[in-house]
Design goal:
With 103 residues, the protein is mostly helical. Helices cover 84% and strands 0% of the residues.
């Protein structure tokens, strides 16, 4: 569900905002977010680097928050679609930190 909302958000953003100021910077932030998100699973599960996974998760949350803030003036709908993602990442960061602390 989170990935679906993110994809809809970026597609809506691209279709409504293309060519406006900061368009490519915001697209770059979407890409960075996707890379960080994919890296988290590798860091946490494959490498079992719990501290690094907490940091990665926190940075994912920061990128989602930045996306929401930067997109808001251009496309409120695209921005609002990212709110469940921000909530999930906040909870996932808390869980990652709890696991890190217990180990």
């Amino acid at each position: 569900m989170i990935y679906t909302l993110s994809v809809i958000s970026v597609m809506h953003f691209v279709n409504t905002v293309k060519g406006r100021p900061y368009f490519w910077a915001i697209i770059g932030l979407y890409v960075l977010n996707g890379i960080l998100n994919a890296a988290w699973s590798y860091i946490f599960f494959s490498r079992q680097m719990l501290g690094a996974a907490v940091i990665d998760s926190a940075v994912i949350g920061i990128t989602v928050l930045l996306l929401i803030v930067f997109i808001w003036p251009y496309s409120k709908g695209s921005s609002l679609l990212l709110l469940p993602y921000l909530l999930w990442v906040s909870f996932a960061t808390y869980l990652s930190y709890s696991i890190y602390r217990l180990n």
